[in-house]
Write a structure and sequence with these properties.
The protein has two domains: 136 residues, Rossmann fold (3-Layer(aba) Sandwich); 284 residues, Dihydrodipicolinate Reductase, domain 2. 36% of the residues lie in helices and 21% in strands. The protein has 16 helices and 17 strands. Strands 16-15-14-13-7-12-11-8-17 form a nine-stranded mixed sheet, sandwiched between helices. A hairpin with a 2-residue loop joins β9 and β10. Bound molecules: 6-O-phosphono-beta-D-glucopyranose. The site of 6-O-phosphono-beta-D-glucopyranose has 4 residues, from loops.
């Protein structure tokens, strides 16, 4: 039996027939149901613009649920229970009269959670219409990314929502914050005095954050081409990871204490100068290449692509944080589509010992590394130096891992998907894992200067072959500082 209690709610999912809802949100709600974490009185209302009968849409949602949950994790008894909670409402998001039925179904007794898996352009209208039918008082709203495409447009969206919903009932999603290992970063840093004493420029030489994806853009060209990798990944996921690594210890675990510390980091990010744009930042776009031994098209050859686009599918950059803890410690960020593997990992490189007494030829490998693997094979590993075993080895050193692999260590426990945790936290009213308005704005502020710089320079992204680790210049970016990306060369 779960050790936490969750209040009942009416979960209104806007954009219920979209990719995100079908692939992630319904499966996450199903898993919560299976784990006994949905109250028996919780109901789910799927709202979408598609006409057609309720029966037909619910049957489609059910078949997609089975597909995405996968046979191994399907329990027909849970599926039945889950589907019994579900109803479908056809709405035009912009018409307030279409919300009357929702208000009737929600009644006034229960908390409403309104999840917007729709374009951000309609968030304001949905909020206004919820308020018109009396659903503003008791409702928490959940906003999917991207919230805007720059500081100005994100402010517009946030302001439109804020007219009807206060910040403490507004939950902005960055699904990376729901990943198990990301949560563990807080535990690792602040529940172990071992690391915190070393966590600064005296002991750390640099930090790498890589979020690589094997997939290309495929069917998502329409959305992605307007965004690009900086807006799609750096502005949110990678900067959030950077904040969790770089922030000062919060006073407590409350949402605002954590978010206050994250905002300070974002505000301390050094702006990138026009010269820095060429030495500190690399934009790339994939061209045809190979993925898992099969040839795959380039970004400009994907279906429905515009062959002139200069949208980036890869970004590598060096970020510097202007404060006492991190002065002189670069954070190298790298993210791209069509990389050789799906890999999200953070590597903290510690400095060499201050006085070196071993053989000079071994010096290069002397540095401890803390590797935090978000996916796949979630876990934490600390590379430490030990002596090679054997009488003939002398004081030959080797670097080996002290390893904590989450799925091996807690074999029985399944690692939940990020959305399961995030949906649960919304139901529990806990904002820890959600992004506050000022965080989003500080992140946009920093990214906007990069976007403006690119626009001004007019430089095209550098090509890289699908299935590679990005343009050669992304390797030069780090080797110029006498370092290399961990593990891939
Ligand atoms: C999303 C981006 O936020 O994150 C996608 O919009 C990306 O482009 C996805 O593919 C990656 O998420 P994950 O959890 O698979 O690493």
């Amino acid at each position: 039996m779960p050790s936490i209690t969750v209040e009942p709610c009416t979960f209104a999912l806007f954009g219920a027939l979209g990719d995100l809802a079908l692939r992630k949100l319904f499966p996450a709600l199903y898993q919560l149901d299976g784990a006994g974490l949905l109250h028996e009185d919780t109901r789910i209302i799927a709202l979408a613009r598609e006409a057609g009968s309720e029966q037909e849409h619910l049957a489609f949602i059910a078949s997609e649920l089975r597909r995405y949950v996968g046979a191994k994790e399907l329990d027909e008894a849970v599926v039945e229970r889950f589907l019994a909670r579900l109803s479908y409402l056809h709405v035009d998001f912009l018409k307030s009269e279409d919300y009357v039925a929702l208000a009737e179904m929600a009644g006034s007794a229960q908390r409403v959670i309104a999840y917007f898996a729709t374009p951000a352009a309609v968030y304001g209208a949905i909020c206004e219409n919820l308020a018109k039918v009396g659903l503003a008082e008791n409702t928490r709203v959940v906003l999917e990314k991207p919230i805007g495409s720059d500081l100005e447009s994100s402010r517009k969206v946030n302001d439109a929502v804020a007219q009807f919903f206060p910040e403490n009932r507004t939950y902005r999603i960055d699904h990376y914050l729901g990943k198990e290992t990301v949560q563990n970063l807080i535990a690792l840093r602040f529940a172990n005095s071992l690391f915190e004493t070393q966590w600064n420029q005296n002991y750390i030489s640099h930090v790498e954050i890589t979020v690589a994806e094997k997939v290309g853009i495929e069917g998502r060209w329409g959305y992605f081409d307007k965004a690009g990798q900086l807006r799609d990944m750096i502005q949110n996921h990678l900067l959030q990871l950077l904040c969790l690594i770089a922030m000062d210890p919060p006073a407590d675990l409350s949402a605002d204490s954590i978010r206050d510390e994250k905002v300070k980091v974002l505000k301390a990010l050094a702006p990138i100068s026009p010269e820095g744009l060429t030495t500190q930042v690399v934009r790339g776009q994939y061209i045809a290449g190979y993925s898992e031994g099969k040839s795959v098209p380039g970004y400009l050859e994907e279906p429905n692509s515009n062959t002139q686009s200069d949208t980036e599918t890869f970004v590598a950059l060096r970020a510097d944080i202007r404060n006492w803890r991190w002065a002189g410690v670069p954070f190298y960020l790298r993210t791209g589509k069509r990389m050789p593997q799906k890999l999200s990992q953070i590597v903290i490189h510690f400095k060499e010992p201050s006085h070196y007494i071993f053989a000079p030829e071994q010096r290069l490998q002397i540095s401890n590394k803390l590797i935090i693997r978000l996916q796949p094979d979630e876990g934490i590993s600390l590379r430490v130096m030990t002596k090679e075993q054997g009488l003939d080895k002398g004081m030959q050193l080797r670097s080996g891992p002290l390893q904590l692999n989450f799925s091996d260590t807690w074999r029985s426990a399944r690692i939940p998907d990020a959305y399961e945790r995030l949906l649960l936290e919304v139901m529990r009213g806990n904002q820890n894992l959600f992004v506050r308005k000022d965080e989003i704005e500080a992140a946009w502020n920093w990214c906007d200067q990069l976007i403006a710089g690119w626009k001004k320079s007019g430089d095209a992204p550098k090509p890289y072959a699908a299935g590679s680790w990005g343009p050669m210049s992304s390797i030069a970016l780090i080797t110029r500082d006498g370092r290399s990306w961990y593990g891939d060369i």
